[in-house]
Amino acid sequence: MFAAESLVRTLINQGVDTCFTNPGTSEMHMVAALDRVEGMKSVLCLFEGVATGAADGYARMAGKPACTLLHLGPGAGNGLANLHNARRGYAPVVNIVGDHARAHLELDAPLTSDIAGVCAPMSRWVGTVETPQDISRMAVEAVKQAYGPERGVATLILPADCAWSDAEPQVIETVGMPDLDAVPLAQLDKVMKALEAASSPVILLGGTACLDAGLEAAGRIADGTGAKLFMDTFVPRIARGHGRVAPKRLSYLGSQAMEELQDADLLITVGTKAPVGFFAYPGERGTFAPPKAEIIALGGPQDEVTEALIILAEAIDTPPKAKVLTRAQAPKLIPDAELNPGFVGLSLMRHMPEDSIICDDSTTSGMGVFPWTQAGPRHDWLCLTGGAIGSGMPQAVGAALACPDRQVFALCGDGAAAYTLQALWTQAREKQNVINIVFANHSYLVLNFELARVGAGEPGPAAERMLSLDHPKMDWVKLAEGFGVAAQRARTAGEFDTALVSALKAGGPQLIVAEI
């Protein structure tokens, strides 16, 4: 038995039973181990950014880590953008990166690199297997580090000779993993007293506070105290739809976010931090909370904020149940109207199944879809937490693996989708129920918008070419079909509505080009 088999068995014993992989020569003994050991689902991805994005989506929906298997430093480098999104979303991921055999490193072969240095910025922990006897212990440590208590990416570097060794290290049985930290009672008391004293309090939710139990408790607190309830602009996962509490999504635009918060004399952050701008802009303040507002953290991403909200709701005078959304009636469709993101949201409100999952990587277009689905069918919405585009289709792969009985949607801008369109091949191979909606405006629209916001002046011919995607236009129907995914194109509200109904009926992976 190779030592790599002990690693796989140990990972399975810790609940890590899914591996998203794009391996190379140095990982072949891990590939053989995945073949020989039952209990680990192996999913091949054609690009490392798909593997890491899928691990992110899996973690957000499963609440536990999957592992990746990447090839040396360049392979890890290809996956960094979606590891960044996972880190920013506090998604637990065990990122396994193969390395040269230890004796081969000193030869400085072409693929030799500083793997730890490559992975460190996107990882909360990096460890290297030093000897074959350490392989199982280090595997357990990687899983522990992914759990945190501040959850995130744990990278395990595996030299090839440690994997191929016949040392047969001990397979470690299930061990306890770190829990989120309990919020101290003193902090709960401080928040309760501040709420009582405030005249215009705001509660800002993030992280696990945006799931059902946290939303219900936060809604009760808001209803009982008169506090305004907001959520971060980009949360890892928000439970939405009828029957649920609906916090207001804080505006992406700094001026609008400041206006939304301008009257607050108290800002309570729950599972997040005080909001700041995505970027700096000339003449604008980078922080959104009013300068005179008191800011108190009920707890951060490493804390058990849901339990803290429930305790707080019971300790103050709140109603037994929060106010929730009732199922809204969809407005009448205008079939011949030119398609825009709002009509896409309207169609989703009309037709998406209950308990769907939406992976949003569509920046400007997603903002137009979001409000329409608020009082529609129950669903989970996964946001682009780290701002690194190219997450939507890979996240959908992982979400579909974690929740195979649920319909998954990927909302993608055409520029973002081009980063990781290889995910379509994996969706087809795994026969996943994913509907990819590509908003084709043939432009980096958000960057046209940002060019004006930073005060860089009117774009000239060179700038326009750098922000335009229409010379030539990408043919997303042909691209999807080339990866084995059926595709349709829609230019009007009616065409999109018909295409969505057709895609849902057909099942399996589908793609709809939304020409906007």
Number of spatially distinct domains: 3
Strand content: 15-25%
Q: Class by helix and strand content?
A: alpha/beta
Average pLDDT value? Answer: 95
Q: In order across it, which strands form the biggest sheet?
A: 9-14-13-15-16-18-17
Classified by CATH, the class of the largest domain is: Alpha Beta
Secondary-structure blueprint of this entry?
Layout: H1 3-13, E1 18-22, H2 28-36, E2 41-44, H3 48-62, E3 67-71, H4 72-78, H5 80-88, E4 93-99, H6 102-105, H7 115-119, E5 125-128, H8 135-147, E6 153-159, H9 160-164, H10 185-197, E7 201-205, H11 212-225, E8 228-231, E9 238-240, E10 248-249, H12 254-261, E11 266-270, E12 294-299, H13 305-315, H14 341-351, E13 356-361, H15 363-369, E14 379-382, H16 392-402, E15 408-413, H17 414-417, H18 423-429, E16 434-440, H19 445-453, H20 461-467, H21 476-482, E17 486-490, H22 493-506, E18 510-515
Task: Please outline what is shown here.
The chain is built from 22 helices and 18 strands.
Structure description:
There is one protein chain. With 516 residues, this protein is of the alpha/beta class. It folds into 3 domains: 3-164, Thiamin diphosphate (ThDP)-binding fold, Pyr/PP domains (Rossmann fold, 3-Layer(aba) Sandwich); 185-315, TPP-binding domain (Rossmann fold); 341-515, Rossmann fold. It has 22 helices and 18 strands. The longest helix has 15 residues, at 48-62. The mean pLDDT is 95.
Keywords:
single chain; about 525 residues; alpha/beta; Rossmann fold; 3 domains; 7-stranded mixed sheet; 22 helices; about 40% helix
